């Protein structure tokens, strides 16, 4: 078994869609990034890469590369899944938290879990997503950005 941790932050700005966990969430602002800035999927990918000691998403998908401009982070997650497969690992479980003062994310959590378990080819019960405000404190509390944290366990395929 291998453990990994991931963390990511993106700024909330006008004129961008708010994509979290592959779900397009109705909101007056969205997250800024080179990709679709899906802060949850980014933290999850970093936790998976971390568990394999394979660096981070900035190394694998550089923000200087135009092929990643506005790309869906679910496509990047598919690439991380391919890397897991070729290194002989599968998901044990993932537990992630999104810190957002608004909007309310609870209505979208099941769809996020379905998106992630579909791409990672694991069961819904292997993926847990939580949401929290930061009680109006800090940059998240001021609604300047959204952050995400993820831990994952990977299992060797032939263990
Ligand atoms: N963006 C968010 C933040 C929180 N939730 C849900 O509300 C619960 C209470 O949040 P606190 O920050 O006051 O602990 C939390 O456990 C989530 O279920 C949410 O849906 N969206
Ligand atoms: C995902 C990548 C892909 O180009 O772009 P961003 O959406 O800017 O995300 P970030 O978490 O800042 O870093 C990784 C990037 O390389």
Automatic annotation (TrEMBL):
Q: Where does 4-CDP-2-C-methyl-D-erythritol 2-phosphate bind?
A: 8-10, 34-35, 56-58, 61-65, 132-135, 139, 142
Q: How is the cofactor bound?
A: Binds 1 divalent metal cation per subunit.
Which gene name does the record give? ispF
Subunit (UniProt): Homotrimer.
Q: Which residues bind a divalent metal cation?
A: 8, 10, 42
Residue ranges annotated for the 2-C-methyl-D-erythritol 2,4-cyclodiphosphate synthase domain, each copy included: 1-154
Q: Which family does it belong to?
A: Belongs to the IspF family.
The processes (GO biological process) annotated in the record are: isopentenyl diphosphate biosynthetic process, methylerythritol 4-phosphate pathway; terpenoid biosynthetic process
- As recorded in UniProt, its EC number(s) are 4.6.1.12
Any coiled-coil ranges, and where?
none
Question: Cofactor(s) for this protein?
Answer: a divalent metal cation
Q: Signal peptide position in this chain?
A: none
Return the annotated site residues (Transition state stabilizer): 34, 133
What name does UniProt use for this protein? 2-C-methyl-D-erythritol 2,4-cyclodiphosphate synthase
Give any Pfam family that matches: YgbB
As for what it does, the entry says: Involved in the biosynthesis of isopentenyl diphosphate (IPP) and dimethylallyl diphosphate (DMAPP), two major building blocks of isoprenoid compounds. Catalyzes the conversion of 4-diphosphocytidyl-2-C-methyl-D-erythritol 2-phosphate (CDP-ME2P) to 2-C-methyl-D-erythritol 2,4-cyclodiphosphate (ME-CPP) with a corresponding release of cytidine 5-monophosphate (CMP).
Which keywords does this Swiss-Prot/TrEMBL entry list?
Answer: Isoprene biosynthesis, Lyase, Metal-binding
Species assigned in the record = Tissierella creatinophila DSM 6911
Quote one Gene Ontology molecular function term.
Answer: metal ion binding
Pathway, per UniProt? Answer: Isoprenoid biosynthesis; isopentenyl diphosphate biosynthesis via DXP pathway; isopentenyl diphosphate from 1-deoxy-D-xylulose 5-phosphate: step 4/6
Q: Which reaction does it catalyse?
A: 4-CDP-2-C-methyl-D-erythritol 2-phosphate = 2-C-methyl-D-erythritol 2,4-cyclic diphosphate + CMP
Give the matching PANTHER family: 2-C-METHYL-D-ERYTHRITOL 2,4-CYCLODIPHOSPHATE SYNTHASE, CHLOROPLASTIC
Q: Which domain of life is it from?
A: Bacteria
